[in-house]
Specification:
single chain, alpha/beta, 9 helices, disordered N terminus
Length: about 280
């Protein structure tokens, strides 16, 4: 029996063991891709690469859910989450999505150092009063994935509730997760108020970056706290140039790589930081 066949059987056996140890309704197809079910909807993952400007290559992937009904009709994520009208349904759905993302990343990505960026639904943060990330940590332990490889993206709307934002960051960080927060919009010093709870990544949309009058102050603040600036939603060459000029650390957008049902590891020398002449 070939080595590749042995590896296939090992992966299948591992998946079956994991599947039997959870309450999720999961399925693994021959290609190795994993999906789950919420009511009458099949959910799966797509991944968009995130690039390091300094390294010029992929350092992680942002995971997004894709879904379809039993009638094979594609559904937007908001349509699926709209079905979870009760808090317990939302908690179940949100945790299922993150479990599917983690499984697909675990079984279909050869790197064990890249970061998995996952979103958390804002209603979940309001429904679960404490122990954020505990259930997901237990699932990650089951599949042998460290929480330090997972970046939790805090929804921008949480910035409006300062106490909740601090509480959420504190909880996730205590369990070893890394944190990505969205830029507050109109203040370059908003991280200062977080004190020791500053995020690992600060996300700013490329379109907002183009309109920002004092991006240097934001970049300096982010870097002074040891965080990385991540410019996302890069759709045009002009936005890419602007992101590199702002001393951004990480880049994400359809111009660089679209969300797809495969985990792409790409080296992009074209994304390297421009050289400044003396």
């Amino acid at each position: 029996m070939s080595t590749s066949t042995n590896n296939t059987f090992t992966a299948l056996d591992e998946f079956e063991l994991i599947n039997s140890a959870t309450d999720y309704a999961l399925k693994r197809v021959k290609t190795g891709w994993i999906s789950g079910y919420f009511y009458q909807c099949e959910l799966t993952s797509v991944f968009q690469p995130i690039f390091s400007v300094n390294l010029g290559r992929t350092i992680g992937h942002a995971a997004y859910v894709r879904s379809k009904s039993n009638e094979e009709i594609a559904l937007w994520p908001w349509q699926v989450f709209a079905m979870a009208s009760k808090d317990y349904q939302l908690i179940e759905l949100d945790r299922l999505c993150r479990a599917i993302h983690a499984l697909n990343y675990h079984f279909n990505h050869t790197s064990r150092s890249d970061n998995l960026f996952v979103e958390v639904h804002p209603r979940l943060l309001e429904s679960v009063k404490d122990d954020y990330g505990r259930a997901f940590e237990s699932f990650l332990d089951l599949i042998g994935m460290k929480t330090s490889r997972v970046v939790i993206e805090i929804p921008a709307i949480v910035n409006r509730n300062w106490k909740l934002l601090q509480h959420v960051i504190s909880n996730y960080r205590s369990r070893g997760y890394r944190i990505a927060a969205n830029y507050n919009g109109n203040r370059s010093d908003w991280m200062v108020e977080l004190g020791s709870l500053y995020p690992d990544f600060v996300r700013i949309e490329a379109s907002d970056l183009m309109r920002h009058e004092d991006i240097t102050a934001l970049t300096d603040t982010v870097h002074s706290f040891g965080a990385s600036l991540l410019v996302w939603g890069i759709e045009t060459p002009e936005q890419l140039v602007a992101a590199k000029r702002t001393d951004a650390d990480n880049l994400q957008g359809n111009l660089l790589g679209k969300p797809v049902s495969v985990i792409e590891t790409i080296e992009l020398t074209a994304v390297s930081r421009p050289v400044t002449k003396p």
